Amino acid sequence: ADFNGDGRSDIAIVNNRKAKIELLIQKEGVGPGETPVVVDPEDVDVNLISPPTRFDKQAVAVSQRVYSFVCGDLNSDGMMDLAFYGEPKGLYVILQKSGEAEADKAKTLSWRTRKKIKIDDGRITPNALVCADLNNDGADDLALAGRDAVYTIMQKENGSLAEPVKYPTTAQTLGVRVSDLNGDNINDLILITNDREKPIHVRFGLETGQLGPQVQFFIEKPSALKLHNLDGEVGDEILIVDAVSKRLICYELTTEKEQDVDWPIMFYPLASGEGSTKRDLVVGDFDGDGLNDVTISDPGAAELIFYKQTAKLGLAEPVRFPAFADITSLSAADTDKDGKTEIAVLSIKEKIIGKAEFEDDRLSFPQPLKLTGEPVAMELADVDRDGATDCVYISKDVNDIRFLRVIYNLAAVNKAEAQLKKGKKAKISKKI
After folding, report:
1. Residue 46 in domain
2. Domain check: are 317 and 390 in the same one?
3. CA-CA distances (angstroms) from residue 84 to 78, 117, 120, 354, 376?
4. Nearest to 128 by CA among 109, 143, 113
5. Which of 80, 106, 191, 343 has the lowest CB atom count within 10 Å?
6. Gene3D superfamilies recorded for this chain (predicted)?
7. What's the pLDDT at 103?
């Protein structure tokens, strides 16, 4: 990395024993009165470097134990900054600040007070943190491997860092890399995992600046791994040393022939937690753009997780919207024939069925339906085949007796209730 912007590469080394990050800043040449370093070809220890050297040694004191360390321009000011994951557990960022050098002395780099980003479950391995442009905006971002997820910290337009975004993973992540595997000039996030069959998991970068679904690839178990454009063609290759045979193996991403393609599997991992085994899922064109989207319930978080589909790209990153607590089930239908699919949400805990719809670029909070008894099951369907969607539900009374009930023509009922509310508001307004 070039820390002082002079066009020469410098070196940064973590020294946990002395609680500092040592910087070796490359000089333009040897200083006044110094003699160049000469290596004797006959010398047995040709790697021994004795002072004077071509490097000016500086240090950044840190009070944390550093596990993984990267450099990058993390505030878009043109200067190289430092980031590391360490203990006490957290992601730490140290930004460089501009300073003037004295005329006869080498410039001493100045640093701002370090900022801590709270992430408690980061991996304590050397390859858990990477710095690269992850959303195709030209600015450096950070990605950190966690216990059961990978975190991305994107740089915003004003140069500040956004809050971490957590992407659940299907296997334990051992290391993180960034590379352009498919040759589209957009960085991809490569996860090295403990998956025995397919240890390489990739989230390809999308044109929208988002990360795509998690795709798994088979390679032999690696003892060493390197990403590099070996053949000069588009797309980087994966070079590994096979842990068993100790052979060097090169893998490249290729497009399979149609007759060789099995059912493609793309993973959109969901976070584990309270109620994660009670999730429900519905598919429909919720935003009315002609493409099917996916909505999943998260009972523990009392939220709906919305995956919008984008043409030629697939499902985008999930967006969460608030809903009922402990959601029991979902059902989807275009109840009002406006081209947008609505979602019926049942919560036995809250004794309610509500209807959520996509408006103002978001899923609305479910609006309660007028019911009789406490609902325990429900479904949206045209039960009387009149072309209108009905709400069929099972409810129980105070004696725990179950009843099958139907709200016919749900759209008409909702419209009548809305008109009734407007009438009441008008009457109150007139009286005042």
Report:
1. no
2. yes
3. 19, 10, 13, 46, 50
4. 143
5. 106
6. Integrin alpha, N-terminal
7. 43
